[in-house]
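Worked Example 4.2. Consider the chain below.
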Amino acid sequence: MKILVLNCGSSSVKFQCIETSPEQMESSTDRVLSRGVVESVSSGEAAQSAIASILESSAGIDAVGHRIVHGGERFWRAVVITDEIARQIEELSELAPLHNPHNLRGYYAARATLPGVPQVAVFDTAFHQTLPRHAFLYALPHDLYVRYHLRRYGFHGTSHQYVALRYARIHQAPPEGFKLISCHLGNGCSMCAIDGGRSIDTSMGFTPLEGLIMGTRTGDVDAAAVLHLMAREGLDLEAAGELLNQSSGLLGLSGLSNDIRTLIEHAGRGHERARLAIDAFCYRVKKYIGAYIAALNGADAIIFTGGIGENQPAVRAQICESLEALGIALAPPRNQAAAGVEMRISPDASRTAVWVIPTHEELLIARETMRCLGNEVPGTTFSGFFAGERGDRRDVPR
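Applying the procedure from the previous section yields the following structure tokens:
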């Protein structure tokens, strides 16, 4: 089965054409047939033209899987997109105004270009719909949750889900047997506590702003500090949002760059604020590791993924430094050798394993698309593992 995976953003369309089947999923022999990015897409017509160009080199598409950032509380698994589903995703644009409208633009363009081909929505938030109430509710008046759905949703779900399933596959065991902490570290960063294949806590919240320090986002910050700044600086909502999302994080701390590679280079030359930014970044990840080990009552493994997590041994080393009491230590030669490759970077005897597992969100979307269309893996205990089944979600009484 050929599945076209589309990630339509505000100015680009990223795509991969993936060949997969139940048998290929079972043996991890899915194939990426083509991939690429079309830049400078600024309208629905341009998106349709871009997708038409993509299809010229991707004949015989059987289904299209779309990355949709926000599924709210309505969508806890992938769904075939109908007119009604599209309408509901549009309604959820209130929660993700910078993402959902563009994601849907890809759907409308693909539908026009490929009439009759199934279109499937795979949601970034879906993996986190198993969070228990005490983990996803904010300590605000409950009526505000009921009226405005203010809660922790979490993001990067396809990445956290992929590496958790991949870890189980490496160890030839179902995911129910593992407690994992996934660290997706890139320009956007989040962490996830995964118990038996289910997300039980995650660092991003109502929006992707909460949690870790990121390239340009603050991560955790006292809400009163934001109110204070708005009053003192005369910031309106738009300006405050720009400050928190675009001018902060590694960029704001360093005054230099949001790119960790640039900061490492300049820190080595004695740039004090570059070093400060790296130290703060690593410390925040370290704190979340400790918190999630407590939430899980121990962890089998810490998994690093994402652009920083996969490719920056020095950052991984600094994060894991002085965590021996938690059973966490690195084998320096292994850590240094792990640049964008899948491998264990902790000593074999360490109580808590540490792994680098490169993420492959597009493959997860392709597999979820296949599962949604009814193609489960036949005759194997790994059916739920490959397909990404997570059981029933937990609802909150209103």
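The chain has two domains: 2-123+362-387, 173-356. The CA atoms of residues 301 and 353 lie 4 Å apart. Compare this with Example 4.1 before moving on.
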